[in-house]
C-alpha cells in the first residue's frame, strides 16, 4: 500500500513527475527537521494522523475514491468508465481523475510484474501488459476500444510508464506510443482538451521544437483556455530544467495570469514558476520574504479568493502556499491553508519527496510550532478563513 501511495502522489500534475535529486534530499532534511520541532502535531488541532494522510489526491473526491475501491475489489473497468462519463466536460476534474486512474493502473501492473518476477526469478519487463496497464485497463481497452475515457487513461498510463525510467532504452518508444494513443483519444472526443494535455508531457519528453510545442499548446488553449491543470502541465517545457529558461517560464506564467478572466486560478501560476526556479541550496528566510516571492504569494491568495471554493485545482494552490508560507515564517496564514487542505497530500511540493505524507507532516509541524511561538494554540483555534 505504501508503494501505491508514493506512486500515485508522484503522478499528481503530470508536468512535475520528474523528481530532481536535490529536491528529494532537501525534502528529507525538512521532514526530519519538522518531526523534531513538533512530534505531536495533531494534539488539539484535529489534524489527520500521518499514517492516515491520503496521497492519491490533493483534496477529497468521494466518487473517485469509491470507483477506485470497487475496481480494486472486482478488477472491473466499468466503475472508471462510468466515473469519467459522469464527469463530462468538467475538464479540470476530468484531468485529475484520468491521472489518478492511470496511476492506479500503473500500480496494479507493478504488482503484477513483481509477482511474475518472484515466480520466474527474473527482472520485470514491459511486455504486452506493460503497454496496456493493469487487468481492468487492458480489459477496458479490449472491450470498449471506442470509449474516449479508456483511451485517455491509456495514454496517460503510457506517460507514467515512460517516466518510471527516463533513462531506459524504451523511453522514447513508449512516449511515441503514448502520442499515438493521445491522437486516437482526440479523435474519439474532438472537443476534449485531455488528450492534448497528456501530449504536453509527451512532447516535453521527446524534446519537440518550440514551434511544434506552441502549436500543441494552442490546441489545448482553444478547448480549455483557463484550464489550470493544463497550464501547470505546460509550464515545465519553458523552464530552465527542460527546453527554456527561468525568464521564459516566468513570462508564460505572468502572461497567463494577467490575461486570466475573473474566477480562475491562473493568477496563482507565477507561484509555481517561482517554485520551479528556486535555488536548490538557498533556504534562507530572506529569499522567501523577497518582493518576487511575496508578489507570487499574494497572486495565489487573490486567485483563491476569486475562484469558486470547490475548484478542483484549488487544493494544489493551497498546498504550495503552505510550503511558501512556512518558509517565509508566515505561520498564521500557513495554518489557515492547512485547515482547508489537511487530510489529502497528493500535490506538489510534497510529491517531490520520497515520502509525500511525511514531507507534508513536517511542514505542518513547523507551522504549528511557529503558530504557537506567536501565541497561538489549539485552544485559540485557527486563524479566520480569509482566503
Structural topology:
Elements: H1 2-11, H2 21-37, H3 62-74, H4 78-87, H5 91-120, H6 127-132, H7 135-143, H8 148-164, H9 171-188, H10 194-206, H11 210-223, H12 228-234, H13 246-259, H14 269-276, H15 285-288, H16 291-306, H17 314-327, H18 331-341, H19 356-373
Helix pairs in contact: 1-5, 2-19, 3-4, 5-8, 8-9, 8-10, 9-10, 10-11, 10-12, 13-14, 14-16, 16-17, 17-18, 18-19
Question: Descriptors for this entry?
Answer:
64% helix, 0% strand
Description:
- With 387 residues, the protein is mainly alpha-helical.
- The chain has 19 helices and no strands.
- It has helices at 2-11, 21-37, 62-74, 78-87, 91-120, 127-132, 135-143, 148-164, 171-188, 194-206, 210-223, 228-234, 246-259, 269-276, 285-288, 291-306, 314-327, 331-341, 356-373.
- α18 (331-341) crosses α19 (356-373).
- It is globular and about 60 Å long.
- Mean pLDDT is 85; it is low at 1-39.
A few lines on this structure:
With 387 residues, this protein is mainly α. The protein contains 19 helices and no strands. Helix 13 (246-259) runs antiparallel to helix 14 and helix 16 packs antiparallel against helix 17 (314-327).
Helix segment count?
A: 19
Order of helices and strands: HHHHHHHHHHHHHHHHHHH
How many extended strands? 0
Would you identify the regions where 5 or more consecutive residues have pLDDT less than 50? 1-39
Helix coverage percent of residues? 55-70%
Mean pLDDT: 85
Q: In percent terms, what proportion of residues is strand? A: under 5%
Terminal CA distance: 34 Å
Output the structural class.
mainly alpha
Radius of gyration: 20 Å
Largest sheet: none
Q: Based on Cα principal axes, name the global outline.
A: globular
Amino acid at each position: 500500500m505504501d508503494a501505491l501511495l508514493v506512486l500515485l502522489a508522484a503522478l499528481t500534475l503530470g508536468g512535475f513527475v520528474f523528481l530532481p535529486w536535490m529536491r528529494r534530499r532537501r525534502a528529507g532534511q525538512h521532514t526530519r527537521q519538522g518531526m523534531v520541532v513538533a512530534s505531536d502535531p495533531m494534539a488539539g488541532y484535529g489534524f489527520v494522523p500521518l499514517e492516515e494522510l491520503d496521497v492519491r489526491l490533493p483534496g477529497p473526491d468521494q466518487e473517485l475514491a469509491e470507483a477506485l475501491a470497487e475496481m480494486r475489489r472486482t478488477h472491473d473497468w466499468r466503475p472508471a468508465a462510468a466515473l469519467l462519463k459522469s464527469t463530462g466536460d468538467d475538464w479540470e476534474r476530468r484531468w485529475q481523475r484520468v491521472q489518478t486512474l492511470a496511476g492506479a493502473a500503473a500500480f496494479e501492473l507493478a504488482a503484477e510484474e513483481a509477482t511474475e518476477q518472484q515466480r520466474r526469478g527474473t527482472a520485470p519487463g514491459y511486455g504486452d501488459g506493460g503497454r496496456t496497464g493493469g487487468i481492468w485497463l487492458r480489459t477496458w481497452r479490449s472491450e470498449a476500444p471506442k470509449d474516449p475515457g479508456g483511451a485517455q487513461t491509456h495514454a496517460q498510463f503510457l506517460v507514467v510508464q515512460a517516466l518510471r525510467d527516463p533513462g531506459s532504452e524504451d523511453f522514447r518508444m513508449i512516449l511515441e506510443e503514448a502520442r499515438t494513443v493521445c491522437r486516437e483519444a482526440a479523435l474519439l472526443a474532438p472537443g476534449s482538451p485531455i488528450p492534448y494535455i497528456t501530449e504536453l508531457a509527451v512532447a516535453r519528453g521527446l524534446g519537440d521544437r518550440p514551434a511544434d510545442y506552441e502549436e500543441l499548446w494552442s490546441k489545448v488553449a482553444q478547448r480549455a483556455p483557463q484550464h489550470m491543470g493544463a497550464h501547470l502541465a505546460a509550464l515545465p517545457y519553458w523552464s530552465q530544467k527542460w527546453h527554456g529558461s527561468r525568464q521564459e517560464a516566468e513570462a508564460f506564467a505572468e502572461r497567463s495570469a494577467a490575461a486570466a478572466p475573473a474566477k480562475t486560478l491562473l493568477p496563482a501560476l507565477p507561484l509555481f514558476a517561482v517554485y520551479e526556479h528556486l535555488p536548490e541550496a538557498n533556504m534562507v528566510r530572506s529569499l522567501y520574504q523577497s518582493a518576487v516571492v511575496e508578489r507570487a504569494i499574494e497572486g495565489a491568495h487573490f486567485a483563491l479568493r476569486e475562484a469558486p471554493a470547490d475548484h478542483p485545482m484549488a487544493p494544489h494552490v493551497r498546498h504550495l502556499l503552505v510550503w511558501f508560507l512556512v518558509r517565509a515564517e508566515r505561520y498564521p496564514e500557513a495554518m489557515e491553508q492547512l485547515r482547508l487542505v489537511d487530510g489529502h497530500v497528493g500535490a506538489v511540493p510534497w510529491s517531490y519527496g520520497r515520502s509525500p505524507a511525511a514531507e507534508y507532516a513536517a511542514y505542518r509541524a513547523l507551522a504549528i510550532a511557529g503558530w504557537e511561538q506567536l501565541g497561538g494554540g489549539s485552544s485559540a483555534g485557527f486563524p479566520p478563513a480569509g482566503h
